[in-house]
Amino acid sequence: MNKLEYSIQRWTDRSAANAADPHATRLTLHILAAVAEHERHMIADRTKAALRAAKARGVRLGRNGTDRLAPANRAAAMKQAHQLEFSRN
Predict the structure, then answer these.
(1) Are residues 40 and 78 in the same domain?
(2) CB-neighbour burial class of residue 30 (10 A; exposed 0-12, middle 13-18, buried 19+)
(3) How far apart are the first and last CA of the chain?
(4) Looking at CB atoms within 10 Å, which of 46, 54, 56, 89 has the fewest?
(5) Which domain holds residue 51?
């Protein structure tokens, strides 16, 4: 049996199984959706906790504002930001 015949056979076997019990597919989708929703909530909770911890440590969150500066002041601000960044490391 070549690769194409094998793939077709597997696809028809799955289709036959789904046709025999269409509720199994619906149930599986609901379970997977519930697991995905739970994981999304867990990720959101971890992210919020990490942001709270960073704020408690005094980390300043967000952009440094250099993109809103006038072009004349932008170079000096970027230089100062890089110096601060390297002094922390």
Answers:
(1) no
(2) exposed
(3) 60
(4) 89
(5) 7-58
The per-residue pLDDT for range 11-51, each reduced to its tens digit, is: 666 655 555 666 667 788 888 899 999 999 999 999 999 99
Residue 31 lies in a domain: yes
- At residue 86 the predicted structure's pLDDT band, cuts being 50, 70 and 90, is confident
**Whether residues 48 and 72 fall in one domain:** no
Angle ∠(65,63,52) on CA atoms, nearest 5: 135
Can you give the pLDDT at residue 37? 95
Q: How far apart are CA 81 and CA 41, in angstroms?
A: 35
At 5, the amino acid letter reads: E
Q: How many domains does the chain have?
A: 2
Inter-residue contact 84 to 69 (CB < 8 Å): no
Nearest C-alpha neighbor of 63 from the set 50, 43, 78, 45: 78
Cα separation, 69 vs 71, whole angstroms = 6
